Amino acid sequence: MMSRLGIALVLGLLTGARAQLLLHNVTHPPCDSPDVKAAALVAQDYLNSQHTHGYKYALNQIDNIKILTKPDGSEIYLMEVDLLETTCHVLDPTPVANCTVRPKVVTAVEGDCDVVLRKVGGVMSVTAFKCKTEESTEDLCVGCASLLPLNDTAGLAMVSASLVTFNNRTGKESLFAIMEVGRMSTQVVSGGARYLAEYVIVETNCTADDSDDNCVPLTNATAQRGFCQVAGVSSLHSIQCNIFAASSMMPIVDTNGTVPVPAPVVHVHAGNLPKVHGLRHHKLTALHDPDLSGLLSAESGESGESEESIVPVVPVVVPVVPVVVVPVGTEAPPVFVVDPVVGTDAPVVSGVVKREAPDSPAIVSALIAPVPVCPGKKIFF
Fold first, then answer.
1. In the chain, fewer beta carbons within 10 Å around the N or the C end?
2. Edge-to-edge, what's the strand order for the sheet holding 146-147?
3. Average pLDDT, the chain
4. Is 197 in contact with 237 (CB distance < 8 Å)?
5. pLDDT at residue 258 above 90?
């Protein structure tokens, strides 16, 4: 009968073998390697397809990557990515690669996301993600425009007045209604407060000859939609709207990604103005983990840096040569060094190192941090 000590030894060996197997199945490639970048762009496109309000986000930096290879040959990518809000609304058919990232000086919005992807037969798909969306308060200046809550009364009054201005323009066959306010800000100028706003409009069932009191926004796929930018106050403002073609509302393939991106479904709010409570920007979808994978880290939560994102410091064997002072007229004693190959103290005789078989490798306490493979380079800022 095997003793308890023997059983414990066998179990320990099996546990160690399992740990070694798992270790060999996990890789940490460089964040900027082509395969990792391709996976990050798939994640970017998928996150944008799930983001049904506000603006598209562009990849800014890959913070961390870990790849788990399963016995069936499939791979699980665990990624941490940073995204930046662009000036393209989610309904804008412009590919993300051609969208302008909103600069810090006008209050940029950043998204930190943990994404789980699965790669089978060379095809990458997102299975879970978790995101945190925050404003960047850096590089704000005195006199610069500052964000307002999306339900700010004065800002919405200018939005409503500007829509009337747009609908009253000649040559418009249909009247438009406000679909969503994307962004509002205010700026103090010599004449007082000046407002800036961006919002989405949608075609209604009314024409220019009808009253807009009972207009109903159209929800079909062919309804025209547009993106408007307005500046000024309710009584005096300038407005510019870009109407999207109905055909552009169909699913498109982003040129910066590898998977079809469905056109987002944006819900039309009842009434003339959308109901948004106190938010200053539209947030990315916070969580999507239908299978409860348990693979999402805490990076996109409120906690700080995860332990897995810390690059370990490894010891490096460095030759150390002591300085020996020899009196004049005496024979120089042998000099002992730490041989970087042998790892033992070996005497140097006439410039030749006598090598002996080492009992164990010697490590000198000189620690040098390796070049980190993550995070990757920032694309924008």
1. N
2. 146-147, 174-189, 192-207, 225-232, 237-244
3. 75
4. no
5. no
List pLDDT tens digits, range 264-313.
Answer: 334 344 344 545 556 899 999 999 999 888 888 755 554 333 322 222 32
3-class DSSP state of 131: strand
With tokens 């991106």, the residue in question is: 261
CA atoms of 209 and 237, how far apart (whole Å): 24
Distance, in Å, from the CA atom of 344 to the CA atom of 109, rounded to the nearest integer, reads 57
Residue 201 has which token pair? 């409009």
Q: How many residues does the chain have?
A: 381
Distant-in-sequence, close-in-space partners of 178: CB < 8 Å, separation ≥ 6? 159, 160, 163, 199, 200, 201, 202, 272, 273, 274
Which H helix or E strand runs over 319? none
Task: Point out which residues pair with 55 in neighbouring strands.
Answer: 89
According to DSSP, residue 191 is labeled T
Distance in angstroms between the alpha carbons of the first and the last residue of the chain: 66
In the predicted model, is pLDDT for residue 18 greater than 60? no
Instruction: Write down the residue that tokens 């600069």 correspond to.
Output: 103
